[in-house]
Write a structure and sequence with these properties.
CATH superfamily of the largest domain: Periplasmic binding protein-like II
Distance between the termini: 51 Å
Structural class: alpha/beta
Helix content: 40-55%
């Protein structure tokens, strides 16, 4: 008997439970000669009779009982650890998800998700990981993060994506005491801009759309601290272009006001991304769905990136 053939586990368990070659064969869906042949091969391998006749049935030898009970334990482990459908109870689960995120993810998505987790899954933790657009592919494929939140542009087709929400880009400027005239395109591109390096993909989109209109945007400063942008704008003649969600936050942080952009720019689509290896994991699926429900004002459909 080849020890790599685990069928002998089922054979020994059935013989021990049924105490009969014919009943064991019926239980296993085999013929009686097939079970007898398997038992003879085991007897030869272990140099022991394993089962002997006793009355109308069969009884195990000491070695046969040890092997049969060991087979039962192994089969039970296979059933519970491998074959049974996995279960995930968020109210009891103690799971940690490492999430790569942009500043948008950290300031907009993370607080809302943590607030919702507090009541529905109190033992589920989220570990934020700073993530730039150029790092998403490597960090998700290398399992450094479980998934990524943000606006990243085009990514590896091996990744999956789910839309969380979409927001327009709007301008922010120093708050004025009186009503200001609408800012036209020429004035907009001539006015010094401050860029947050954390919104690099958004900045590139704006530059592209300005160029398509035949203009050149005057970028006066690139700031690595996104939360410094509203204070810079409030204390200078600089303006900035940011997603509406961030603009709402900035209005609470500094004396600024918003204004509509004088050119057409597509909405920013904020998504969560993950690698195919996690797509069917039951806990991962629950977490993705939970995050999407926190932004259920937008339709969200799982699909590979195209």
């Amino acid at each position: 008997m080849d020890t790599q053939d685990l069928n002998f586990l089922y054979l020994m368990d059935a013989l021990y439970r049924e105490g009969s070659v014919s009943r064991a064969a019926q239980k296993l869906g085999l013929t009686q000669p097939a079970v007898s042949h398997g038992l003879n091969r085991l007897r030869e391998k272990f140099q022991d009779r394993l089962f002997v006749r006793m009355g109308a049935g069969m009884a195990p030898t000491p070695l046969g009982e040890r092997i049969a009970l060991g087979s039962r334990r192994v089969l039970e482990m296979i059933r519970t650890d491998i074959m049974d459908a996995p279960r995930f109870d968020p109210s009891l689960a103690a799971r940690t998800f490492a999430v790569g995120m942009t500043d948008m993810g950290g300031t907009v998505i993370l607080p809302r998700v943590l607030h919702a987790l507090r009541t529905e899954a109190p033992n589920v933790r989220v570990v934020p990981v700073a993530l730039g657009p150029n790092e998403v592919n490597d960090m998700t494929e290398g399992a450094a993060v479980d998934l990524a939140w943000g606006y990243f542009g085009h990514l590896n087709p091996a990744l999956y994506q789910q839309t969380l929400f979409r927001r327009p880009l709007i301008g922010i400027r120093r708050k004025a005491s009186g009503r200001r005239a609408t800012l036209g395109f020429d004035a907009f591109v001539r006015t010094p801009h401050v860029f947050a390096t954390a919104t690099m993909v958004t900045n590139e989109l704006l530059l592209q759309k300005v160029k398509e209109r035949g203009g050149t945007l005057q970028v006066a400063m690139e700031c690595p601290y996104i939360l410094a942008v509203p204070a810079i704008v409030a204390g200078s003649d600089y303006i900035a272009t940011v997603p509406a969600e961030l603009a709402e936050l900035f209005l609470r942080l500094a004396e600024i006001e918003t204004f509509p952009l004088p050119l057409a720019v597509p909405d920013i689509v904020v998504k969560q991304h993950w690698h195919a290896r996690y797509n069917d994991d039951i806990a991962h699926r629950w977490f993705r769905s939970f995050v999407a429900q926190c932004f259920n004002d937008e339709q969200a459909m799982d699909s590979p990136i195209v």
